Amino acid sequence: MNIQQKINKLLYALSKKDKLYKVNSFKFYSKSSNKYCIKYQILKRELIPIDTDLDLEDGEIEYKEKYKVIYESYNKVDLLKYLIEEYRQGSEADE
Q: With contact defined as beta carbons under 8 Å apart, do 36 and 27 qualify?
């Protein structure tokens, strides 16, 4: 099993715990190393309540999704380690 498959499985497992993440990647040219590099970002979903009329008929609060960058890395192994720690923190809180 390669690293990308493990990252995908961790993202799926975290989504089952209502922790939604996105992974973005950007390619850029590095003049110092004379090659293209990839930068990875992990974005975490946050639900922000929308300010609407206080007299809601059904009493439900509407939320808007917003993703915030919480981690940046230049290799997938560090990305995998971060996601493992996020998964472990959720598991320890459940016990």
A: yes
